[in-house]
Amino acid sequence: MRVPIASLGPHMDGQRVRICGRVQRVRHKRKIAFVVVRDGSFDDVQLTIKDPELLKLAEKLDRGYVICAEGIVKASKIAKKGYEMIPEKIEVLSKSEVPPFDPFVDVDHTILAKRLDRRVLDLRNPRNRAILVLKGLVTRYMREYLYSQGFIEVHTPKVTITATEGGAEVFPVKRFDREAYLVMSPQLYKQMVMATGIERFLEVGPCRRAEKHHTKKHLNEYFGLDIEMAFATDEDAMKLLEDSIRYAAEKIFEDHERVWRVLNEKFEPPEKFDRITYDEAREILKKKGFEIPRGEDFGADEERALWNEINKPFFITKRPRSARPFYVMRLDEDPKYTKGFDLIYRVELASGAQREHRYEKLVENIKDKGLPLESFRYYLEAFRYGMPPHAGRGLGLERLMMGLFGIDEVRECVLFPRTVDRLTP
Fold first, then answer.
1. What is the pTM of this model?
2. Pairing of strands 152-153, 200-208
3. What angle do CA 224, 227, 233 make, to 5 degrees?
4. How far is CA 352 from the centre of its chain?
5. Buried/exposed 342-373: b ≥16 CB within 10 Å, e otherwise
6. What are 410-423's pLDDT values in tens digits?
7. Orientation of helix 397-405 relative to helix 234-255, angle to 10°
8. Are the C-beta atoms of 5 and 44 separated by less than 8 Å?
9. Which comes out higher in pLDDT, residue 78 or 152?
10. Alpha-carbon distances of 40 from 3, 35, 61, 81, 397, rounded to whole Å
């Protein structure tokens, strides 16, 4: 039976094992060959070959070959890891052509575009593969926490007949003989769910935005983790977001050290998140030389300046109405502001709000934004028959990875990135 390479060690001295993986490098020295094999467990093992028949086979091995080996684990003071494996049998399962770059050596010197063109090779690098593994774990534990809080996962449509939420950022598609659009986010659908009696909504799925950005933090297709909950406020949504992120980070820190150390040896779960209002953020930025007219949103430079000042995750609350969508509830004491918030964790990675649940107010908001009511006919209908107060947020999982682990480039946080100029592989 095959065993993971990560489970091997000097403590297994004398035991017979079978390992399978990919050849990382081959080195010949007189009548000995050293073959380093790596598998998906973020570890490798050195095969020390002395057998004449296996030496002949080793001469044919090269980087990328997929092999299985059976043999004896041997503790060794000379071997780098304190042990080696003496193979008695090697089976070649798949050969490999010479790759355009070595994912174990050349990645740091290979431009990202070339790496993404050969993404399969790029992900053989332990650091790059660890990003996707950790993203899967983050998603798992975020879900786990939300399930424990009574959330139900519901899957919303990804194609719609109208360009909702304004229409400027959606992709048109041909659906049989009708024009349709890829849904930008589940926002309107998850609010409609609040009228069904399901009071706590969760969805993990693709979000697509037709924005022509060329930055390190933008994708045209990313994966969002959306929630919506009835009888809740913006404060409830912020607390839930903070608690779920900290829960996921702590689980990874405690249970998956082998993986996170590959990516970031300084990783630690975040402590309590700070909160500042939009106007307080403007004052901080003013002292740093940024003049932001009241009502305008912050850009990447401003977010970076705020992060450098606060240096911990923080919410920006009481966002101006002019910078928020129509479904965000206004503040009763000052309608120029809303119960909307953003979470900054190195970059902006989540937005949320208490929603406007009152039908008449919602219609008024849509008109004030200059949007056609007809485009929101089915959405509005859900509010005509008793909609509970509700709040929620959208979270980009790739952006969350950037925040938690200090990753600088969002394209590294998705299997096959989709950007303005990339549709392959």
1. 0.93
2. parallel
3. 135
4. 18
5. bbbbbbbbbbbbbbbbebeebbebbeeeebee
6. 999 999 999 999 99
7. 60
8. yes
9. 152
10. 11, 17, 20, 18, 23
